[in-house]
Write a sequence for this structure.
């Protein structure tokens, strides 16, 4: 009876999450520099009617909100996986060098191959994200006890600053600073359907595979020795999860540029709702991450309309206090 009640409770929570996601999508589609009506949004999604407003919704607002959905889900899931895999409550793709590495790699390919397509740019971001996180954990492993969560975050901050410096240096040397800044400013402005067609499949693949490994991740997050005792091939599972993190973070940078704190905040919030079982944490993180990203994008478009406030700035204003709260909450155990 208790298990049945728990199942109904989780189902109820997921239904509420889906409703929040739908409401966030409608709010993001209606409000902006040019407010639209619910009827115009509906016509843009269900009919072939063409007016200036409906065309704007279809070709400008809709693709950026679709991007917000997938980027929010990707960053939230990658953050949740990182926190479970490292048992580090401060883990986040933007804090542990992944997005900085992808950013540096993106600047490099824009400099060396200005005509590179979205696929080449995305693959390069994957490589850069992998290099960034390898640097961070390599530095963390240089000293005994180096995998302390706070030390890893400090290593992430140092490596991120270094990689961002490289990206800026490439931009200045090759005189493409404006192009790099436009691409990596941390926003969804200018997202096109062509970009989505190339990048979104990678995000979908990463999300699906992560769901299949959610049970193994739950066991790993609790105790690696238990996972080995249960017959799990922990090294192989860790390798696949690492690839998923790189896939999701690299795809996100290729779409919207730098974006920190989403992968930190959303999983912590979700665990309050559904607990620590990653079979529920990952899908719920995808739902609330997508909703959060759409609302942040809507705020960026409306706070100082008709000018656009970078989504990165809005997310950081919320994320930094949350980061400090997590540090304060676990400060004695994280060092």
């Amino acid at each position: 009876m208790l298990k049945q009640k728990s199942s109904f409770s989780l189902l109820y929570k997921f239904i509420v999450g889906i409703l929040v996601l739908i409401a966030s999508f409608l709010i993001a589609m209606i409000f902006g520099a040019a407010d639209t009506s619910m009827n115009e949004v509906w016509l843009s999604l269900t009919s072939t009617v063409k007016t200036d407003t409906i065309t704007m919704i279809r070709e400008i607002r809709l693709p950026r909100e679709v991007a917000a959905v997938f980027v929010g889900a990707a960053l939230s899931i990658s953050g949740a996986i990182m926190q479970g895999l490292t048992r580090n409550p401060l883990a986040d793709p933007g804090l542990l060098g992944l997005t900085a590495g992808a950013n540096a790699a993106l600047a490099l390919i824009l400099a060396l191959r200005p005509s590179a397509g979205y696929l080449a740019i995305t693959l390069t971001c994957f490589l850069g994200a992998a290099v960034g996180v390898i640097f961070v954990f390599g530095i963390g492993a240089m000293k005994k006890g180096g995998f302390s969560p706070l030390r890893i975050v400090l290593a992430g901050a140092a490596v991120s600053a270094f990689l961002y410096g490289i990206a800026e240096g490439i931009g200045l040397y090759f005189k493409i600073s404006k192009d790099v800044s436009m691409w990596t400013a941390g926003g969804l402005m200018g997202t096109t359907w062509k970009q989505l067609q190339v990048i979104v499949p990678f995000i979908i693949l990463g999300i699906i595979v992560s769901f299949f490994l959610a049970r193994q991740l739950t066991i790993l997050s609790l105790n690696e020795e238990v996972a080995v005792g249960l017959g799990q091939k922990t090294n192989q599972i860790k390798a696949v999860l690492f690839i998923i993190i790189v896939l999701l973070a690299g795809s996100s940078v290729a779409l919207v540029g730098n974006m920190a704190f989403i992968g930190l905040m959303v999983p912590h919030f979700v665990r309050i709702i559904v607990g620590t079982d990653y079979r529920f944490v990952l899908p719920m993180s995808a739902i609330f991450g997508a909703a959060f990203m759409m609302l942040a994008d809507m705020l960026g478009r409306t706070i100082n309309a008709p000018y656009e406030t970078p989504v990165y700035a809005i997310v950081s204003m919320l994320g930094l206090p949350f980061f400090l709260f997590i540090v304060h909450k676990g400060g004695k155990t994280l060092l």
About this structure: Residues 52-86 form the longest helix (35 residues). The chain has 14 helices and no strands.
